[in-house]
Amino acid sequence: MPSDVEYSPVGEGLGMRDYWLYVWLRRAAVTAAHVTGLGLTLIISLLSRPGTSLFSWHPVCMSVAYCLCLTEGVLLFSAEGFPFCIKSRKCKVRLHWCCQALVLIAAAAGLGFMLASKSVSELPHLVSWHSWLGIGTVAATVLQAACGICLIFPKLLRLSSSPLRLKLKLYHATCGLVVYLLATVTVVSAMFSDWFQATVKGAAWWGFLLLALFPALVVMNQITNAYLPRKKLTS
């Protein structure tokens, strides 16, 4: 019995002129997301003045992990706007895993610097929403990486059936979106911290907020367009 749900290509049903305008806008948005992720990481690293204290390395490592590596690891699967124009799916998967490995390493380092800073200063741990969100984001990232390992090595879960692997891919992509949105919320919550508000004020603060939210919108659009089921149109 045929299914009434399919995963349809984006832009289907548009006229030729509207379609190319849509493609151009998507490419511009994805390219802007690349630039935004890199720019936000560089600016946060400069504001943190790494090396001045143990804490100064925390925002550097976390911005590298989630603003840069996580963003690039997702956007490289986009058909539009990837800087190196890589076509091979196998190569993209390998680069994705390299990015995710860097996310785990940088996040673990950032967490370690924060724990060390709190211990040296004799300050209590987990006393803010940002700290709880950060712990949740790191834990979700580890679980998502474990799911990705199962996709690369399906024999670990004996996933010899193609439908099961397709379902796991769908769950992996969906959970990846949740992790990215959780990371975005964590980054935004950091902007309400005493350190950030003492460093960035006025209109610049709102600019940082937009910079943090924009890549999340692009990533959300990419994943939902690729995996969100739509009902077939009947004539």
Give a description of the structure:
By secondary structure, the chain is mainly alpha-helical. The protein is built from 7 helices and 2 strands. It has helices at 16-48, 57-75, 89-121, 129-152, 162-190, 194-199, 203-227; strands spanning 5-6, 230-231. Strands 1-2 form a two-stranded antiparallel ribbon. Helix 1 crosses helix 7. The longest helix has 33 residues, at 16-48. It is globular. Mean pLDDT is 82; it is low at 1-10 and 230-235. Keywords: Electron transport, Heme, Iron, Membrane, Metal-binding, Transmembrane, Transmembrane helix, Transport. This is ascorbate ferrireductase (transmembrane). Residues 24-230 form the Cytochrome b561 domain. It comes from Gasterosteus aculeatus aculeatus. Its main location: membrane.
Instruction: Compute the CA-based radius of gyration.
Output: 20 Å
Mean pLDDT reading: 82
Question: Helicity range of the residues?
Answer: over 70%
Low-confidence region ranges: 1-10, 230-235
- Amount of beta strand: under 5%
Distance between the termini: 19 Å
Largest sheet: 2 strands, antiparallel
- Give the strand line-up of the largest sheet: 1-2
The beta-strand count equals 2
Give the helix/strand class.
mainly alpha
- Give the SSE order as H and E letters: EHHHHHHHE
Helix tally equals: 7
3D shape = globular
